[in-house]
Write a structure and sequence with these properties.
This protein is α/β, with parallel strands linked by helices. It has helices at residues 2-10, 13-24, 41-45, 55-62, 77-86, 90-93, 109-115, 131-134, 159-171, 203-212, 217-252, 284-287; strands at residues 29-36, 65-67, 70-71, 119-123, 142-144, 177-184, 257-263, 291-294, 302-304, 308-309. Helix 8 links the parallel strand 4 and strand 5. Helix 1 packs across helix 2, helix 4 (55-62) packs across helix 11 (217-252) and helix 9 (159-171) runs parallel beside helix 11. It is globular and about 65 Å long.
Amino acid sequence: MRKIVFMILAIGIIGTVATIYTLSGSKPTRIVLITLDTLRYDSMMGGKDQPTTMPLSRAVGDKGLIFTRFYTATSTTQPTHATKFTAMHPWQHGVSRNGQVLDVKHTTVAEILKENGFTTSAVVASFPVTSKVSQFDQGFDRYDETFTEGRKESKYALADQITKSIMRQLDTAEGDKQFFWFHYYDPHAPYGDTSGQFRGFTPKPQLERAVQRGESRKQLNQMVAKFRQYYDMDVKYLDQHLHQVLQRLEVESRKYDTHLIITSDHGESFEHDYWFNHRDGLWDSVVRVPLLIRGPTVPKGKTIQQQVGLV
């Protein structure tokens, strides 16, 4: 009974669309959660005098429900994803920083869905959410964590590899009730690594060296502009490869009732006096993130402007 109440009342978005299947049951169903690591709100949704950097993905959201004031749990990957899966604040589930393992005593949405007849599959793109480091594989039948970029504790995969892995999982998906979690990492530093020409920029050490050299504010601002340019390049690359997945889900929605949730774990800061990255920051650029929901029971083309939190 506790788990049923937890699914209806605590899980929120994912649990809610899961219960929709039990009410309709007209055809097989899919729940697809896509988390885009380090993606800023304005990168997907645009801003003042700034168009979206992800027009292909944004177009999907325009056919569903868009949240304009959605706030994540923290500014760090592991704590936020732990909150997504448990509907608990970081001080409740105990994961307050990267490198901490989610305790198996906490029930995850994947475990609840599996107990209710769903097959559960995940494709993740970076070291912090690997099964060994995070234990986010709780409740998943399949957990793809194959990386080719970076080294040791900073290993990750680019969008082309993640999309290929996702396509393989969709190719072999079974069952009338399916839950997928797909995780992309491209907006995260190093910036510009999607170009294939170099390993990318890691802003903090470069900026620190520039300050030590006594570079002028104008020169520092030029560096910031360069970092944002390459960050945007990576976001566009993500949009192109994510679009392939979204197109396939759209085509296969003729067979499956498909409930799609697209969001980010946190954003990235470029505005705050050369403070880069996202850890320890609580500015809007870091904790206000996109949230798009689309599905057969979701209002189309509607915008929610009320403030909403991840829990």
